[in-house]
Fold these 2 entries.
Entry 1:
Amino acid sequence: MQTGQPNVEERTTEDPIYDITQALHDVSGTLIGAVGMDLAPQPIQGRDTVVARGLENLQDLEARIPSKNRLYENPSTP
């Protein structure tokens, strides 16, 4: 996580899914944790395309997190 590069567990014959773990930031760029995602490649997609899709998913998620405190806030509390 300190390098900013995703950690990618390659797919295998037993598990054809890429397991990608990336640093998670809030909208201001503050590191707040890590997020893991399991992504299946489409028929003609290679590793680089799947990792790029993971980064796009991460950026969409980060754009919705105003802060770590807000992320863990209980929405049912006033």
Note: Residues 47-62 form the longest helix (16 residues).
Entry 2:
Amino acid sequence: MLWAIQERMKLALSVIDMIPDVHRTPALAALRKAVMDGRGGALRLSAEERELAFYDGPAPLISPIGARMLKALYDAGRIKLKKPAQRSLPKLEAYIGTEAAFRAEAAQILAEEEAKRDRLAVILKDPASARPDEITPYLIDKVATAQLGYGAYGSVTIAGLACHKELIAPESVNTAQTRAEGRVLCWWVDADGTRQGDTA
């Protein structure tokens, strides 16, 4: 899942805490399983919805889609509680209410990422088609790899400008425990004669 989508999600435990008297750990486990299975209670999720519902990272995240799954599990009596269930969960329902906006933002982010991938593919086939403002160290690395080979260093021309990918030798700090690594620098000189990109 893209970072830009993740940052629009809430911490899973903070969403689970929107349910009064909830046992957090079993609730998180139930939600994780339900999202992976794509079903919980009466709710079914599509493959796309499963992707957007839950991020299972070091700090799990839940989108409003995942919150809807959590509510479906709650309604089905599959969330362990310390006290009897309540009729309404206003905080959880309010977060679920933001699903349409979340979906729209996620769709826009995914479309922008696809457009970037498509543009990169065009530039890799024809680096002259790039605009000078599109040149970045990342782009130089990709074009150099495509033209010179993986792990190779040298110069390539992008948007009519000479662009360079070079390996800077490591400082000699080798010890028995650590080995110094070289740094890869990707840089170019713009039309004004100013060096851009990575610096040593």
Note: Helices lie at 3-6, 12-16, 24-37, 47-53, 64-75, 90-96, 99-125, 137-148.
